[in-house]
UniProtKB/TrEMBL annotation:
It comes from Pleurotus ostreatus (strain PC15). Belongs to the universal ribosomal protein uL10 family. This is Ribosomal protein L10. Residues 163-188 are annotated as: Disordered. Residues 165-180 have a biased composition (Basic and acidic residues). InterPro entries: Ribosomal_uL10-like_sf, Ribosomal_uL10_bac_type. SUPFAM superfamilies: Ribosomal protein L10-like (SSF160369). The lineage of its organism: Eukaryota, Fungi, Dikarya, Basidiomycota, Agaricomycotina.
């Protein structure tokens, strides 16, 4: 009877959470490096390694989540898909598929995959993951598209606004309720389903093999698209030739003689009548 009562505790269970660590692990006696995973951990390690290998051409956004249910996670995936869905236009009548993938990761094994990934800025990555613990997820984008990245960030900000810090009165009230005596002493407390308040924050991103902090991710999302940049470069390169063509067209035909005549008169007026006489 005692074992049954102890196994059905009314208090919610707390799971252990690990932070991502990119620092080299401590070498213990009897352990060899690099670490070899088995079974499920080996599958996760290989999966995370493949995700990191795509960061050369596909951005990877790191998200910290807390108090998420399965239904809320499904809704988040649907919101991201709806925000990045392209609409048909005159330039592209057929919408281009853009499917971001949200993956909930196991931070300890993902940290091992990060340590094995070559060419990564360990200092910047450690700064990004420093003091970040709890549930982590990565959002893989097919290609770098700043407007769509900006749309995703807007969806996250709108769906998960930052919570206000609790006041001293609220903290004191919670402490009093926690330490208060039960209403019916001697009876087992009824289980109550905890009210979840989901939180989601952007931790950083890996774009083109470089690590970006949250501020840098938002700056990247404000950039124009690649097609717009190409059009601007073409415009800058074609501007001098366009100006030269305009000058030549103005000076074509009979305008050329008038242009030269005006230039000669201007030179004569500048030199003056005594320009050719020797000095006294």
């Amino acid at each position: 009877m005692l074992s049954r009562c102890s196994s059905r505790s009314p208090w919610p269970l707390q799971t252990r959470s690990y932070a991502i660590s990119v620092k080299p692990p401590k070498v213990l006696e009897g352990k060899r490096l690099p670490r070899v995973f088995k079974d499920k951990k080996a599958f996760q390690f290989n999966w995370y390694t493949k995700i990191l290998q795509t960061t050369e051409h596909s951005p990877l956004v790191f998200l910290r989540h807390n108090a998420f249910s399965a239904q809320r996670l499904v809704k988040l995936r649907n919101d991201i898909a709806a925000a990045t869905k392209s609409k048909p236009s005159l330039a592209s009548p057929t919408p281009i598929e853009y499917q971001p993938q949200l993956t909930v990761i196991r931070s300890s094994i993902f940290g091992a995959a990060l340590r094995e990934y070559p060419g990564l800025d360990v200092t910047a990555m450690d700064k990004m993951t420093n003091e970040v613990s709890g549930g982590l997820a990565v959002l893989s984008l097919p290609v770098l598209d700043p407007p769509r990245l900006h749309a995703i960030l807007r969806v996250l900000d709108r769906s998960f606004p930052p919570r206000k810090p609790k006041t001293e009165e609220e903290l004191k009230k919670e402490l009093e309720e926690k330490n208060a005596d039960p209403v019916t002493p001697g009876r087992r407390m009824k289980k109550q389903r905890a009210i979840l308040h989901p939180e989601l924050t952007v931790v950083g991103a890996i774009i083109d093999g470089k690590v970006f902090l949250p501020e840098g991710v938002r700056e990247v999302s404000k950039l124009p698209t690649l097609e717009t940049l190409r059009a601007q470069i073409v415009g800058l390169l074609s501007a001098p030739s366009t100006q030269l063509a305009a000058v030549l067209s103005e000076a074509s035909g009979g305008r050329l003689a008038r242009t030269l005549e005006g230039l000669r008169q201007g030179l004569e007026e500048t030199s003056g009548p005594d320009a050719g006489s020797p000095p006294a």
